[in-house]
Specification:
The complex is a heterotrimer of chains A (636), B (190) and C (106). Chain A is 71% helix and 3% strand. Chain A is built from 24 helices and two strands. Chain A has a two-stranded antiparallel sheet. Chain A starts with 6 loop residues before the first helix and ends with a helix. Chain B is mostly helical and 190 residues long. In chain B, helix 1 packs antiparallel against helix 2 (26-46) and helix 5 (125-132) runs antiparallel to helix 6. Chain B is extended. Chain C is mostly helical and 106 residues long. Chain C is built from three helices and no strands. The longest helix of chain C has 30 residues, at 63-92. Chain C is elongated. In chain C, 54% of the residues are buried. The chains are: A mainly alpha (636), B mainly alpha (190), C mainly alpha (106). The interface between B and C is large, with 87 and 78 residues.
Chain lengths: 636, 190, 106
């Protein structure tokens, strides 16, 4: 089964090609079911490979399957090859698994859309790219997938491209990612320059021999790439705007898979990060913690149901980078897996709410949906408990793992993480209350709609929110189940229960923590409960004032300042570069042409057409030759 | 005696040569050329190349220069060119430099190789037989050399002469009415 | 009786021929009349003939003299053709000099 690892990305690619050709004929919903089947088949193969790997001993759990030689250039030989080891197969499992669920969900969500088959075409292409990214055995195949998911993200975010904001959001995502991609490319150049190969096995194997500066350079440039892809502090601004895309897109790409590519990359090169200067992991940890806190503060004041979840994603990704910076690579992977479960669940639940509310996304116009959409509400609440860090749900175990190692790194970082946990509990509780509890505020909204003449009063009963169809609800249930039991893969009680750590041990650097686990865990639980209680007080019982400062709603003005900079001084700088290109570079090239032309014009005068001049030239030539032979060469 | 002949003949040669390049009237130049050719013929005799001296006078001085004079008279190019003006300013200095350089180089070559050893040349049997005869030995030797050792060159030069005659007749004949001369371009071919 | 100061050696003849050749070269470069130009070319050919004969005597090889023989033949042929050309050209452009025949101007 291990040899069939290439099927894992190949099946979605096949799906993409088939739907490109025959999608419109298949139509709604067959195209969707076909795409889902492809990803499900990929999941089946992944499970097979997983079982195969489990049957091997820990040292043998690395299998490289080379398909063909891609770029043989001098000493650089790059193959299209897949690396099946615990880390990549773990990623594949949840990418294909959650991918299948989301594909199924999307069949219901996108029902009735005019470009139904195109959506699934893009989704399958995305699955292919993500799997190439994760399974690549060298940096270039990973980069192929990296760029592929970036492109698919652009296609999918701006899927409803008639909307101006959607098109802009797609462009923004792609361009911001590009900045990060530059970092990845620089890292590849450094790796090749230092080691002579782009293979992970060679690079990680040679990590011991690298100079500190080279290792730091590779690590930090990879981190820059990860910042772009995983929306960390300087480059996060595309993620909230990316909510313009359909909700399945937000769930798949921006919660579970693409944004985790950055985390995957950093864990993949963890041997190099380990040997780099100590300030490199510190930078990563600080950026991660700062992002987590920053995004959490913004989420407190958002009113769009998806934007809250978007900022929440940024915040949770910050946690993962905090873990990487603290050397807790397995904790980062653990949190990535659990986050995939509950964030996808939350996004799909939000999508279900939006679908049921006829594409209403403002939480101020929701409320009391618990009775009308019971399954959605129930699963959403499970997701809420998971993300808030309430034991025994999955989120508690993974977040706790991270906070433990953060405390080891620096108590300040731990404190930042703790405050973020409090805010996370607070804003998620706020969201749950505003959407599912309280008074039903959507009557007023629909009355406004009615006043605009679009909707007839008699049809008001049709506008009442309803539960979503089975293909949207079933994935919610599955994900809720995973959110409940997902923590079991890495319980901290003893070495036997830390199954994820022992599974990942051969390929990822593992540190042990010396701090006592129980006190920190209790503090974390207490903080989570405080956050929940505070939100209940403010939004449910209305005992305290609502604190939603405008600056938080504006995301600290960061987006606006970036736009102003790019439009103003940035623009001038780019215009300067264009001028330099037109005058200096082109000038040099055209100058050469002008020079040749001028010289030719002068030399042309030699061709006078006059015999006597030619005779003089011949005579001079003869004399010069004689001088050369007699005087210079000394022939006499 | 030989010195005297050399000096006089040399003076004739150089005087005639300078005359050719200095005289503005082409007929004067042709007459100076005849002087040079005679001087060269005398020098041939001094070198015991009797036959060649005769041929020089007959062919060069007698036929070629006469041809020159025919053309001068025929075409009326006898108006003197003004040697005082020179359209290309650079031409004369370049000519002086080239001449001086050429003379210096060739002169150097000649002087340096003064003491060089003379390679021994064995003549063909025919030529050696001719050298044994006292009278007309030069012409006999020359004839034997041309017609046995260099007979192919002789044949080729004969053909060359025929071609030259035919070509010149074609080039120089008066065009019949309506016919283009060989040097005129066809209409529309420009 | 004029006492011979020295006997002219081959070197003298060769030097004479070199001077004659140089005069011919200078003449080609300086004169504008096409026929005088031709005459200067004849000067050069005669210089070469002279040096051939001098060396033939020095080396005792009759081949030098037969070389002169052929040079004269070819020179004659060349003059014939050249003058034919000059006639053809001057018939079209009377009073032309070499400076006027500049169609090869680039």
């Amino acid at each position: 089964m291990l040899d069939l690892v290439w099927l894992i990305p190949a099946l979605p690619l096949l799906g993409f090609l088939f739907i490109t050709v025959a999608g419109r004929k298949l139509g709604d919903p067959k195209a969707g079911y076909f795409a889902t089947a492809m990803v499900a088949a990929s999941f089946a193969v992944t499970v097979g490979v997983f079982v195969d790997l489990m049957s091997k001993t820990a040292e043998e759990r690395t299998h490289v399957r080379t398909l063909f030689q891609w770029i043989p250039v001098g000493s650089l030989k790059i193959d299209v090859a897949f690396l099946a080891d615990p880390l990549s197969i773990t990623m594949c499992l949840f990418v294909t698994g959650i991918g299948t669920l989301i594909h199924l969900y999307a069949v219901g969500y996108m029902h009735g859309d005019s470009r139904f088959s195109k959506f699934f075409l893009y989704l399958n292409l995305f699955a292919f790219s993500m799997l190439m990214l994760v399974l690549g055995s060298n940096m270039l195949v990973t980069f192929l997938g990296w760029e592929g998911v970036g492109a698919c993200s652009y296609f999918l975010i701006s899927f409803w491209h008639e909307k101006e904001s959607a098109a802009t959001a797609g462009k923004k995502a792609f361009i911001t990612n590009r900045v990060g991609d530059w970092g990845f490319m620089m890292a590849m150049f450094f790796a090749f320059w230092a080691v002579g190969s782009l293979d992970y096995s060679v690079i990680n194997g040679a990590a011991g021999g690298l100079t500190k500066t080279t290792a730091t350079a590779i690590a930090l440039f990879c981190f820059l790439g990860a910042c772009g892809k995983s929306a960390q502090l300087p480059l996060y601004l595309w993620l909230p705007d990316a909510m313009e895309g359909p909700t399945p897109v937000s769930a798949l790409i921006h919660a579970a898979t693409m944004v985790t590519a950055g985390v995957y990359l950093m864990v993949r090169i963890s041997p190099i990060l380990e040997v780099s200067s100590s300030y490199a992991p510190t930078i990563i940890a600080i950026v991660g913690a700062a992002t987590a806190l920053f995004a959490a503060t913004i989420a407190v004041a958002q009113n769009d149901i998806k934007k809250v979840l978007a900022y929440s994603t940024v915040s949770q990704l910050g946690y993962m980078f905090l873990a990487i910076g603290s050397g807790a690579y397995t904790a980062a992977i653990f949190h990535m897996v659990t986050h995939a479960f509950f964030k996808a669940l939350l996004f799909l639940g939000a999508g279900s709410v939006i679908h049921g509310m006829h594409h209403e996304q403002d939480m101020r116009r929701m409320g009391a949906l618990r009775t009308l959409m019971p399954i959605t509400a129930g699963t959403f609440i499970i997701g809420w408990l998971a993300i808030a860090g309430v034991p025994p749900f999955a989120g508690f175990w993974s977040k706790d793992d991270i906070l433990l190692f953060a405390y080891d790194k620096s108590p300040i970082l731990w404190l930042v993480g703790l405050v973020t946990a409090l805010l996370t509990a607070y804003y998620m509780t706020r969201q749950v209350i505003m959407v599912f509890y309280g008074k039903a505020r959507w009557h007023d909204a629909h009355a406004e709609h009615g006043a605009h003449g679009d909707l007839v009063e008699g049809a008001r009963s049709e506008l009442a929110p309803h539960e979503s169809p089975w293909m949207m609800v079933a994935p919610l249930v599955v994900l809720a189940g995973l959110s409940i039991v997902g923590g079991a893969i890495n319980l901290p009680f003893s070495h036997n229960t830390e199954r994820l750590v022992s599974w990942l041990e051969p390929v990822v650097v593992v540190h042990e923590s010396t701090t006592a686990k129980l006190p920190l865990a209790l503090v974390a639980i207490a903080v989570g409960l405080i956050g929940i209680a505070a939100a209940v007080l403010v939004y449910a019982k209305h005992k305290a004032r609502v604190i939603e400062p405008q600056i938080l709603a504006d995301a600290w003005g960061y987006d606006r300042s970036v736009s102003n900079f790019m439009g103003g001084p940035g623009r001038k700088a780019f215009d300067g570069v264009v001028w330099a290109d037109a005058h200096v570079v082109d000038g040099a090239v055209n100058g050469v042409g002008a020079l040749v032309s001028a010289t030719a014009g002068k030399v042309r005068k030699l061709q006078s057409g006059n015999v006597r001049n030619y005779a003089a030239a011949i005579g001079s030539g003869v004399v010069l030759l004689l001088v050369w032979f007699v005087v210079v060469r000394g022939m006499l | 005696m030989e010195l005297f002949v050399f000096v006089v003949a040399g003076a004739m040669v150089l005087g005639g040569a300078v005359g050719v390049i200095v005289r503005s009237h082409p007929v004067h130049a042709a007459l100076s050329l005849i002087l040079t050719l005679f001087g060269v013929a005398v020098l041939f005799v001094a070198q015991e190349a009797h036959f060649l001296a005769a041929v020089q006078v007959i062919v060069y001085a007698g036929a070629i220069v006469v041809l020159f004079l025919f053309v001068i008279m025929l075409l009326g190019v006898d108006n003197a060119e003004d040697l005082r003006i020179e359209p290309f300013k650079v031409q004369r200095p370049v000519a002086v430099v080239v001449g001086a350089g050429l003379l210096a180089m060739i002169g150097m070559a000649i002087i340096v190789s003064r003491k060089a050893t003379v390679p021994v040349v064995t003549q063909s049997q025919a030529v050696q037989d001719a050298a044994l005869e006292p009278h007309d030995s030069n012409i006999k030797a020359l004839a034997r050399d041309v017609f046995s050792d260099h007979v192919l060159a002789f044949e080729l030069t004969s053909v060359l002469l025929v071609i030259a005659v035919v070509a010149t007749v074609m080039l120089a004949r008066k065009p019949r009415p309506g016919e283009l001369t060989p040097l005129e371009p066809k209409v529309g071919a420009q | 009786m004029i006492a011979a100061v020295a006997t002219p050696t081959t070197t003298w003849y060769l030097l004479l021929s070199a001077v004659l050749f140089t005069i011919g070269v200078v003449g080609v470069m300086v004169r504008r009349n096409p026929l005088v130009l031709f005459m200067c070319i004849e000067l050069m050919l005669n210089a070469v003939n002279l040096s051939f004969v001098a060396l033939a005597r020095r080396l005792g090889d009759i081949g030098g003299q037969s070389m002169v023989f052929f040079v004269m033949v070819v020179a004659a042929a060349e003059v014939v053709v050249g003058l034919g050309l000059v006639v053809a050209i001057l018939r079209r452009k009377p009073h032309a000099t070499t400076d006027d025949m500049a169609e090869l101007k680039g």
